[in-house]
Amino acid sequence: MLTPAFDLSQDPDFLTIAIRVPYARVSEFDVYFEGSDFKFYAKPYFLRLTLPGRIVENGSEQGSYDADKGIFTIRLPKETPGQHFEGLNMLTALLAPRKSRTAKPLVEEIDASEIPEEVVDDEEFDWEVEQTPYEEVSESALNPQCHYGFGNLRSGVFQRLQDELNDVIDIKNPDFTPAAERRQKRLAAELAKFDPDHYLADFFEDEAIEQILKYNPWWTDKYSKMKAFLEKSQEEENHAALVSFSEEEKYQLRKFVNKSYLLDKKACRQVYYSLIDILLAYCYETRVTEGEKNVESAWNIRKLSPTLCWFETWTNVQDIMVSFGRRVLCYPLYRHFKLVMKAYRDTIKILQLGKSAVLKCLLDIHKIFQENDPAYILNDLYISDYCVWIQKVKSKKLATLAEALKEVSLTKAQLGLELEELETAALLVQEEETALKAAHSISGQQTLCSSSEASDSEDSNSTVSSGNEDSDSDSEQDELKDSPSETVNSLQGPFLEESSALLIVDGGACRNTAIQESDANQGKPLASSQPLGASGPLIEELGEQLKTTVQVSEPKSTTAVNHSNMQERDTK
After folding, report:
1. Low complexity bias located where (predicted)?
2. Which CATH number fits the domain 6-85, given the four candidates 3.40.605.10, 2.60.40.790, 3.30.70.20, 3.40.50.300?
3. Closest by Cα among 537, 221, 247 to 363
4. Residue 540: what pLDDT?
5. What residue segments make up the domains of the chain, in order of their start?
């Protein structure tokens, strides 16, 4: 027989059951309902439900069939009109037959004080028994197989799965490693894995972190709607309808095998604590991937949850938060304390939304692990059982768990990784580097300013000097125009006193000393000419420079006068 796809909904007076039975023989079908029992049969489909409330047959029930869609729709009246049936979307729980549930183990040891007196054997007890000296025995020797899994109900699993062990969990030989030893090894592994450079890089360069923090997962909108709904109405049970399941998720729920779990008080508390741990890891993964799962999603979830990778057991919520914070800062790509606190707040929202939201998260985790080759073992150990168990949990329990989580406060100092010291040292180094850069920039600006001032002063000096020269030349030209005779005399006198002229005598060179202006007027020679010999080229060069100077400096009138004087001297 096949279990058909089905969906339940309700209004104040009726419960509606929609059953999808394609290719069924609709001419032959049976429907039975009484109290909380409902049965439907249409070959080859069979559906049996245990309803969360009671229904009654009073003639107002209705039924219809959509041939195009192959869906039977059955409306059944509630025994108590206005009653709200809780958990109609918990399909696995609805498929369960009615059974007596008890938290007591099937087999337990009865203390002698609880045995009736008539059962006590009055025979004399034989005290002659073999005695051995007392020896301290380790916990692993007393319990050769340690327990783990959902509610610590499993043991001996990894003895058969040694090849898959290293790819799934971090603990070695979990079947013979007690809980205290697991915790010690986990803490040591986290300290060894912590990378200060990676943490500081994400601490200072947090652009990607801020972008991740802005992402709103699906439960954010649901939580806002729930808060708005609760402000208008105080009926908390109705907000579970805010969370709905897709057809794929409904198919997952129908595939689970429903079963009951015999959990004592300690194991039940452990299940709730581990649920927080798993949800924290899932919230982190959903946020950093922005809801787009990838090949690393299974690794992230199981690595961030000590429950899944170390089979850790918990005694309080504070330890869960500290462990999660340490692992976020040690293992994934994005390692920032803000992500720890964001996942913490997301987990509180999911718990306050109720078991429908928690189940939706667990179904997503189950799908991620199922598609990952080694991680599917964790579905068998934890997630599948959680998906079945959570459907039977009361939402008030989850609300109490959310309140307990809200009361927890987490600081960086509690993580034991010296984060505050690292940040303080890094900030000091950053301030020193900033101060050095500022000093270098100031010194560079001062050097540029001094060099520019020097160049400006040089330019001004050159401007002033050129201006002075121009003014001097202008004044000299004005003086030459005003008194040409004085200029001729001033140029002629020194020339005649300090210079010498070149004379060509009979094809030879001789030296003729300068004649003073007063003696030239009297026609008296001052010195005789002397042969120059080897000093001829030097004298010729000096003579050419002298001629050039005289030609440039003297006016035409002065040159003519000097030329006539030279002719007179030669004739004499």
Report:
1. 450-468
2. 2.60.40.790
3. 247
4. 61
5. 6-85, 158-420
